[in-house]
Design goal:
Glutaredoxin; 5-stranded mixed beta sheet; two-stranded antiparallel ribbon; 35% helix; globular
Length: 232
């Protein structure tokens, strides 16, 4: 413990005459001092973590939101259009397109007016698509006599066209797929915003999207939907 006494002004003789036995041995021994009775040394106040945490969270959230908004701006996106970047859904307008069937017949979105159409997006390398093909061929046979119903396969394989054509022709012949194919180069996939396959879109006579199926779907479900549209 420090005192306010100037060491230069202290009397050396009085220091020599001090009785060493009169000193309190407990107070002289630093090891015997009671730590709880000692005056705590003053310390710098530490910032409160609890007080800073809401501020840190708020700043972090603001930075994340700013990064997302900046990324969307770089892509030319706007918040009001955010829900339009998934696949087309029921009641969405039919995308405009102009493609050619494998036999050379042109097909556009306006050609779907006046008929019920089913577009199925698939590829030879897609295992789930292969599992669904028996259902598609069953629907093809079931509605074979319906002149107002058409199935279009939208093939998503890639590679040079001669090899791709040979691959698809062998695949469809092996599975009895008689419906016409479209060798999509990306126009239909972009127009319908396809993210995964198999993917199926059913369009009514007014060229409106009425049913969308991502992944597998049963024959009875498809038949019921198609029959309902044919009856309209």
């Amino acid at each position: 413990m420090t005192t306010d006494t100037d060491p230069k002004s202290a009397d050396p003789e009085s220091a020599k005459s001090a009785d060493p036995e009169s000193a309190d041995p407990e107070s002289a021994n630093p090891e015997s001092a009671d730590p709880e009775s000692a005056d705590p040394q003053p310390s710098e106040p530490l910032p409160s973590g609890r007080g800073l945490r809401p501020l840190e969270i708020g700043i972090g959230a603001a930075l994340v939101a700013l990064a997302v908004f900046a990324g969307a701006s770089d892509l030319g996106l706007s918040l009001r259009d955010w829900d339009s970047y998934g696949p087309v859904s029921v009641d969405d307008p039919l995308p405009s397109f102009s493609v050619t069937l494998a036999d050379g017949t042109p097909l556009s979105d306006t050609d779907l007016e006046g008929q019920v159409s089913m577009l199925t997006f698939w590829a030879t390398w897609c295992h789930a698509c292969g599992l669904e093909m028996p259902t598609i061929t069953a629907i093809e046979e079931r509605f074979a006599d319906e002149d107002d119903f058409h199935i279009y396969g939208v093939n998503r394989d890639d590679g040079p066209m001669p090899e791709r054509t040979a691959l698809v022709e062998a695949y469809t012949a092996d599975r009895g797929m008689g419906f016409p194919q479209i060798y999509d180069t990306g126009e239909l996939a972009r127009g319908f915003r396809i993210e995964a396959i198999p993917h199926m879109v059913i369009v009514d006579r007014h060229a409106r999207i009425r049913y969308v199926h991502l992944g597998s779907v049963g024959e009875r479900t498809l038949a019921r939907e198609i029959e309902a549209l044919l009856d309209e």
